[in-house]
Amino acid sequence: MTTPTKAPRRRSESPLMIRRPPKSPLSLRGHRLVWMLSLSMFFCVFLAWDQISYQFLMMNAEGETVNKAFQVNPKVNHTGVIRQISLIGERNSGTKWMWAHLADCFNHSIPVEKKFSRYKHWFQPRDYWRYPHDTLVIAEFRNPYDWLMAMHEVPHHAPAHANVGWKTFLKKKWTTNRTGLDLELKGDELCQHHFKYKDIISCVHKPEPHVPVDNRHSLDKPFYEMRNDGSGKPYKNIMELRSDKIRNIMEIKDFPGVADLWMVQYEFLLSTGTQDLLDRITEWTGVEPRCKAYPPQFRRQRNISKDFVYYVTDHLNWTVEAEIGYEPMAIMEENDDDDYDRS
């Protein structure tokens, strides 16, 4: 077993990625005074930038990328050994890609897990005995418009929401009927991923093991989380689930044994690369990555209709979204949407 490397004392800035300013475009052949002033300005901007918050990628009305400042208060006084890195995040949020990258970079010295107190996609309970102390938790998010459209197209573990129109998908109650082996249980059993029976559908991993179904997106393995309050009641829709999942993740920073919680955005990592994130992990753990950082990637933007954008904008909890750096996207003037049905 590799001995964990002791982390150095933390600096006072945010532990999240910081985008460095570009080098001065002035030519070194220019006037010496101009060059010296430019160099001085560069270092001033560099030092100031090093103290500000993580920059998140957003989309404006024309689909262009816009950086929004977002700040998280780190536990700057943490000086212990980082014993585990846990990568968590919802389905279709890039966690498979990011976990594989971090594992490739740091697993030689620090375990990189795709779970915390539960598997990465699900609600994380305050079960401090299910993870080592001190654990660094990295939560990955995706902007709500792209995430909801991706969930509509690829509804992992959500058979009741497969093969329906986008508005039905967004409005439909987040639940399904119990079937097969679930109906044979008494209701007091501990279910998959240590959920209580009333808090998950289905309790059994594959409730109808002998029935052939379309399992392209694990539709034969339903996983509908009920409200995270113990009531056993379903969420009104997937947007309500998302808001509560964000709240749950935000609470993790105060769980016993958590070294810190870092929040990153999938689209920002794609557009800027992962070098800054790897550098921050090295700073916090003292472990050098055995990998190459991913360079910036430019992927084709998802085609989302104006009606879809309007509906999500009208019905999503933007107060909660602001906690992770997201805000509504406006795509046209108010007087141009006379044909839009806001129901």
UniProtKB/TrEMBL annotation:
This is Sulfotransferase domain-containing protein. Residues 1-21 are annotated as: Disordered. Keywords: Membrane, Transmembrane, Transmembrane helix. It comes from Seminavis robusta. It comes from the Eukaryota. The chain crosses the membrane at residues 33-49.
